[in-house]
Amino acid sequence: MARPITITVNGDKHSLEVEPRLLLVHFIRERLRLTGTHIGCDTTHCGACTVLLDGVPVKSCTVLAVQADGRQVTTVESLAVGGLHPIQEGFKQEHGLQCGFCTPGMMMSSFALLQEKPDPTEDEIRWALSGNICRCTGYMNIVKSVRYAAQKMKAAAAVPVEAGARS
Amino acid sequence: MAIDTPPKGFIGESIKRKEDDRFIRGKGNYLDDISLPGMLHMSILRSPFAHARIRSINTKPAEAVPGVVAVVTGALLEQHKLAWMPTLSGDTQAVLATDKVRYQGQEVACVIANDPYVARDAAQLIDVDYEVLKAVVDPYQALKPGAPLIRDEKKDQKDNHIYHWEAGDKAATEAAFKKADKVVSLETFYPRCHPSPLETCGIVADINPATGQATLYMTSQAPHAHRTLFALVAGLPEEKIRIISPDLGGGFGNKVPIYPGYVVATAASLLLGHPVKWIEDRSENLISTGFARDFHMQGELAVNKDGKFLGLRVKMLSDNGAFYADAQPSKFRAGLFHIVTGSYDLPAAHVETDGAYTNKAPGGVAFRCSFRVTEASYLIERLVESAAVELKMDPAEIRLKNFIQPEQFPYKSATGFEYDSGDYPRALKLALEKIGYEQLRKEQAEKRKRGELMGIGVASFTEVVGAGHGTEYDIAGLRMFDSAELRVHPTGKAILKLGVKSQGQGHETTFAQIVAEELGIPASDVEVQEGDTDNTPYGLGTYASRSTPVGGAATAMVSRKLRDKAKKIAAHLLEASEADIEFDHGKFFVKGAPSKSKTIQDVAFAAYTNLPEGMEAGLEGVTYYDPPNMTFPFGTYVVVVDIDRGTGQVKVRRMVAVDDCGVRINPMIVEGQIHGGLTEGFGIAFMELITFDEQGNCIGSNFTDYLLPTSWETPRFETFETVTPSPHHPIGAKGVGESATVGSPAAYVNAVIDAVGHLGITNIDMPVSSDKVWTALQEKGAAE
Ligand code: FES
Ligand code: FES
Q1: Cross-chain residue pair A140–B708, CB shorter than 8 Å
Q2: Among A122, B79, B132, B717, which residue's beta carbon has the most beta carbons within 10 A?
């Protein structure tokens, strides 16, 4: 019954045998032990499991691992390269998290939003995150966190290459 | 320009949270992240019926599935005297059903397998033969003669009545009502809702067969109390039980009770010699674990023509479900519902409460609330709104007229509380000013002329939080103190261990700040540890806003204990007499000569290297703090709504929240707590509902039906503060985690009633959904 699949997760190729019914979220959490992606519901509502599939945010509890065969998956664990990603920084600076359970999914949805719209309005942020439930924060600070990240990324993009390359 | 020094994290500084670093990297350690070698997985088969006799259970088809290790039924547990367990309210609860199932979703059998998918498949193969019985889902029906008896296994239980409890003075209240010009009454139902933390409940039970050591990783808001209860229930020796409550993905009261799944997984690990993991899915969480509210309330207010309140009379019936498993102090059968006199100087009050069994899930927990304060606050604030409507008075004015005045504190309430401190008029006036009340009233009058519906809702709540004192408040006999252990190492860095347990409230930061304030060690140098019973002093846990009032007080007191010793060491180092040593934020110096000083770090080093003659080495201590009284946070919330007459849709235009929680330790965290509570209050007021059909089928059993607020509909909040310190708390703090969930539902609903009251609509029960509003409008001929 098990089938061989190859999924690239955060840049690393994983070739494993999985049962066709295995959910992508379980593949990520249990087979790869990347536990930053969480599970908060069983009806595709909460978004705690949000990852990027070929750059597009999906609820990984509603995707089969076999559907991700040959594709790229990006999880929260990939955000910090060297230092924190501006989105992570934003969540910390603006107190965009409390228990932290929704946070990885929130950040992945925010990441996708900022790729598409580098300077989103409050309504655009609220709309883009409306598939991610947070039970703790009341969202105001999450909106601020995303705004913080947008500013920071804009500023970084504006830095001339020479200056940015200095290290 | 001043040189930037990193903040020390003293009280009042909004430093960034220490715990965030792991969470934003996806490196939190939540229950489901725990995986142990040889670990097995448990799945629960639940009852599809609300009330049914079990004729037989055939487990063979499940046992035959490859990968299944064991199937546990109530009959098996009975052999080990574990089929029933005590509840936190002194009742009993079935662990796995033996005789009957008493609510839909009740635990019937468990499958333990080497894979979670296999366990789940196999559970569905268990064949249970049920004889379906008539279900009772309404507590009034349940109390009628001839209603089906739910708890027929209890020897002396002849009906579905659980308790009767009263507070206040009945005769004095009757007399007050006789004198009054008018009696304002309100009948309202605070419906069943659910805390729904984003992480569900679970356990990894790991009992070592060789040593008998039981390590239980559990989603627990009260690990120490749970350890003791486990020892009592399962007969395990307490010193062999170690409960580790890892990072919790929210709690809100849902992680206070002990659930059957915990008990079965533990028993299974003991019997099988393997670690056993059980983690609920969301539907299981919603249908079976600690719900909230479900109070039917009738309130009457005796008032004079001028709007002065003379007395309050309340009758309440609580729907407790199939087992009376409320989490609350044992002397109080309806929690602290008798705080129902709220912010008002009520000379007389009487409260009568009863509880009933129904065929619904058990476990009335305090969902972001100090033991039923939410229901009480809702009732009085709605009742005051009714009084304002009936007397044609402004709702702000009638409140100002009846508030307990600042000079009346400490104030003894008619139901027996002693309020510590407050300035209610100040909070209300600030809220009115911030929202621009008078202007809004003008706007409303103009809109009303045009037939548009706009409402302004006011609620001025008072909470009672931070239980104990221990002689008055206990849970299952355990006194409600809490504890802190502080150890300062030679390099001046410290570890603080607490008996409370964060679920996202930011304890690792807030409590480090208390140490920073009291000892001068920067908060970044104080490591806060919680949740591991082997590693922290005994405490009753985090719920009912008690962490800062009790655990925070313990932290301040243990810091002061260490400071006293540090002063002696500083005197020795400065070659001065102790009486001449002064302390200011981490520096000890000789009176009048501040240049000659030693830092707390110098002193910490000396505590291990250079002590005064005869002094014990080290700088550490532990404090068990039993609060002299509860604390009484308060505030005023004002909401503006616009209602669409065509659809009944209520749009929250503005929400101004003034909170007074005494001294704020980390204002950023406090504000975050308030945002969260205002959102949960919004959800309860407009969206969240667990209800049942006549057969007892639970409606609201997943996020399709149980609606949580998302970023899209959640209002923007405007938050403000006043500060009235608690006089008996060492740092004047009162606790804030729950104020907004307690205070806001009435403000939202009052705004709706304020918009439609002139049409003769006096009440709409929560959740105030569009269809209910539209129907109410239509009945008055006011819908479009
Ligand atoms: S776990 Fe809730 S949407 Fe995937
Ligand atoms: S921070 Fe707890 S659910 Fe969002």
Answers
A1: no
A2: B717
What span, in angstroms and rounded, lies between the C-alpha atoms of B312 and B332?
Answer: 20
Global pTM reads 0.96
Q: Most B CBs within 10 Å: which of A29, A79, A101, A137, as the mutation test of the B interface?
A: A101
Distance between CA atoms of residues B143 and B162, nearest Å: 10
Instruction: Sort out which chain B residues have CB atoms less than 8 A from A29's CB and list them.
Output: 32-33
Rounded CA gap, B541 and A76, in Å? 31
Determine, for residues B26 and A75 on separate chains, whether the beta-carbon distance falls below 8 Å: yes
Q: What is the CATH number of domain A3-78?
A: 3.10.20.30
* pLDDT tops 70 at residue B323: yes
* Residue B286 at interface with chain A, using a CB cutoff of 8 Å: no
Q: Is B166 helix (H, G, I), strand (E, B) or coil?
A: strand
Tell me, which fold does domain B20-27+482-625 have in CATH? Aldehyde Oxidoreductase; domain 4 (3.30.365)
Q: What pLDDT score was predicted for residue B2? A: 47
The domain locations on chain B are: 20-27+482-625, 34-133+200-248+255-288, 292-467+629-779
Give the whole-angstrom CA distance, residue B384 versus residue B388. 6
- The tokens describing A28, both together, are 């990520």
Residues from chain B contacting residue A142 (CB–CB below 8 Å): 711
pLDDT mean over B36-61: 98
Tell me if B635 sits within 8 A of B451, measured CB to CB.
no
Q: Please state the rounded mean pLDDT for residues B181-206.
A: 98
Q: How confident is the model at residue A154 (pLDDT cuts 50, 70, 90)?
A: very high
B221 is catalytic: yes
* Cβ-defined contact of B282 to A46 (cutoff 8 Å): yes
* pLDDT grade for A161, boundaries at 50, 70 and 90: low
Task: Tell me if chain B has a CB within 8 Å of the CB of A1.
Answer: no
Q: Is B124 a catalytic residue?
A: no
Q: Is CATH 3.20.10.10 what the domain over B34-133+200-248+255-288 is classified as, yes or no?
A: no
Mean pLDDT on B111-138 = 98
Average pLDDT over residues B120-136: 98
Give the CATH number of domain A82-158; options: 1.10.15.40, 3.10.180.10, 1.10.3720.10, 1.10.150.120.
Answer: 1.10.150.120
Query: Residue B414 pLDDT > 70, yes or no?
Result: yes
Residue B166 in this model has a pLDDT that exceeds 90: yes
Tokens representing residue B337 in the block: 């519902």
Which part of chain A has CATH 1.10.150.120?
82-158
Beta bridge partner(s), residue B636: B460, B658
Q: What is the DSSP letter of B434?
A: H
> Mind listing the pLDDT tens digit for each residue in A59-94?
999 999 999 999 999 999 999 988 999 999 999 999
- β-pairing, B482-488 vs B650-660, is unpaired
Residue B763 identity: N
Which class is domain B292-467+629-779? alpha beta
Intervals of CATH 3.10.20.30 along chain A? 3-78
How far is the centre of ligand 1, averaged over its atoms, from the C-alpha of B344 (Å)? 45
Least confident of A59-68, A138-147, B176-185, B362-371: B362-371
- Beta carbons of A98 and A137 less than 8 angstroms apart: yes
Q: Model ipTM? A: 0.96
Contacts of A143 in chain B (CB under 8 A): 711
Q: Do B34-133+200-248+255-288 and B20-27+482-625 have the same topology in CATH?
A: no
Q: Predicted confidence band at B4 (pLDDT cuts at 50, 70, 90)?
A: low
User: Does the CA dihedral B149-B154-B159-B161 come out positive or negative?
Assistant: negative
From the CA of B250, the nearest ligand is 2
